[in-house]
Design a protein that fits this description.
- By secondary structure, this protein is an alpha+beta fold.
- It has one domain.
- The chain is about 25% helix and about 20% strand.
- It has a five-stranded antiparallel sheet with strand order 1-2-3-4-5.
- Strand 3 and strand 4 form a beta hairpin.
- The longest helix is centred in the N-terminal third of the chain and has 15 residues.
- The protein is globular and about 50 Å long.
- The model has no long low-confidence stretch (mean pLDDT about 90).
Length: about 110
């Protein structure tokens, strides 16, 4: 079962299964990190992945209580830095932060690159 019908998306995009939605939402939360302003949306469950582009890591999310009802982001799938805390502090690694592109409709996904 998909959360959002494939018919709701433009060509090249499709809905997700609940398992995929949970995985993509968790990955976005990890990539944005603790200090990102969206943290409050994750705390209330207001963000959830609803679709993905065919053949890329571009994902569209629904969000409640924000400027737009949707946003798209390119997930990097970067692994967490598991080095000891002191080493992470002394020699921090740059963390890729996925961009957030607001969308006022799913039709805006047509031909978009994130």
């Amino acid at each position: 079962m998909r959360e959002t019908s494939d018919q709701d998306f433009p060509e090249g995009w499709g809905g997700l299964t609940p398992e995929q939605a949970a995985l993509f939402t968790a990955q976005l939360r990890a990539e944005l990190g603790r200090d990102h302003p969206f943290r409050r949306f994750f705390a209330t469950g207001a963000i959830r992945a609803i679709g993905a582009a065919d053949g890329s890591d571009d994902v569209v999310f629904a969000i409640a209580g924000w400027d737009a009802p949707y946003f798209a982001s390119h997930l990097t799938w970067a692994a967490a830095d598991t080095r000891p805390a002191l080493l992470r502090r002394l020699r921090p690694r740059p963390r890729p932060v996925p961009g957030i592109t607001p969308l006022h409709s799913l039709a805006a996904l047509h031909g978009a690159v994130f």
